[in-house]
Design brief:
338 residues, three-stranded antiparallel β-sheet, 9 helices, 38% helix
Length: 338
């Protein structure tokens, strides 16, 4: 397969990863209507016993495979059965409608709104993105402009047993569509959710999740404000980036140090020249936003022929652990120590 390596010096028109990959849900739709709109309704994800087909003396036989099941869904476009993978006895499918019911509960309890539906890896993984009702507003020390970051709660589910039902808190700065990431030690942003038919247990867990989300928002707001209040001159900003990327690590080869220094230069150029960073230039938050702009919109990606660069970038933003870890380390490095 032919691929092309793309490095965007002039970023594509900004769109956050969720909207780049998902279907935006119009306001006013009920949850069943939203699933229909996103082609996520009536999948009927199910297990069927797995069999092996053998031929003995020209006679076709089906032999059961012990403790193994194929996962199928009904494709919403052609209504044909489609195989997602193979699972064991204990795995139980949870329909998109079931997970959507959780969003209804969250809406009633918090006022959050379902904004985007995600269908990833051919439907094997799905996500429902909810925007929390209260955003976070920060003031540029240079211009006095108000800068808004929205907090999203994303429910992820898998239909192939690759992951459990989970909830992830993700701040997105609207001006630049950068997906922010706070160091996990500061506050919890990832939660595993139990599937249970016991309403009281589920409601108690959702109440705990929402309580943690408000706590996360408070901690995130305090830490961002601390970065805004932390002044950095250009020399110190570069030093911080060299520390983040270990550009002067003596254990690296000369070529490795050279490549890391080139990355530092790229991020520093964004810090110095990007209009999305400009309102917070001279602060630690400006340096942090240069890092997230680099990871989300500028760093090189491999695009297969016929592929969509925006979608590949967005998928990396959502699924790349190294990029996620880099943002968290940058956040931790740039928040002033107590």
């Amino acid at each position: 397969m032919t691929t092309t390596e793309v490095s965007t010096t002039t970023p594509l028109p900004r769109q956050d990863a969720f909207h780049a990959l998902g279907t935006e849900i119009p306001e006013g739709l009920t949850t069943p209507e939203a699933l229909e709109f996103a082609n996520m309704a009536h999948w009927n994800v199910r297990k069927e016993p797995l069999t092996a087909v053998i031929y003995e003396n020209g006679v076709r036989k089906e032999v059961p495979v012990p403790n193994q099941h194929a996962v199928l869904r009904t494709n919403p476009f052609n209504q044909q059965a489609e195989v997602f993978g193979v699972v064991g006895n204990r795995w139980t499918p949870f329909q998109n409608e079931t997970v959507a019911g959780v969003t209804d509960s969250i809406t009633r309890m918090s006022g959050a709104r379902l904004t985007t539906a995600l269908v990833l890896n051919g439907g094997r993984k799905t996500g429902l993105v909810m925007e929390m009702p209260e955003g976070m507003t920060f003031t540029s020390p240079r211009t006095g402009e108000k800068d808004v970051t929205k907090l999203n709660l994303v429910l992820f589910n898998s239909h192939d047993a690759s992951s459990a039902l989970s909830a992830v808190l993700t701040p997105i700065r609207l001006f630049c569509a950068n997906q922010q990431r706070m160091a996990e030690g500061s506050a919890t942003s990832r939660f595993m959710l139990r599937h249970t038919g016991e309403e009281q247990i589920r409601m108690a867990q959702l109440e705990e999740l929402l309580s943690e989300s408000f706590s996360y928002q408070d901690v995130f707001t305090r830490n961002v404000q601390a970065m805004i209040d932390r002044s950095l001159d250009e020399e110190l900003a570069r030093i911080q980036l060299e520390d983040l990327f270990s550009a002067k690590d003596p254990d690296l080869t000369e070529r490795q140090r050279e490549l890391r220094q080139l990355t530092v230069d790229s991020v520093f150029d964004l810090y110095m020249g990007s209009e999305t960073v400009a309102p917070f230039h001279g602060t630690a938050f400006g340096v942090y936003n240069a890092v997230t702009e680099y990871t989300d919109h500028v760093a090189r990606v491999i695009v297969p022929d016929g592929g969509n660069e925006r979608e590949i970038r967005a998928l990396r933003t959502l699924s790349s652990e190294p990029m996620d870890d880099l943002k968290a380390r940058a956040f931790d490095l740039l928040v002033p120590s107590n």
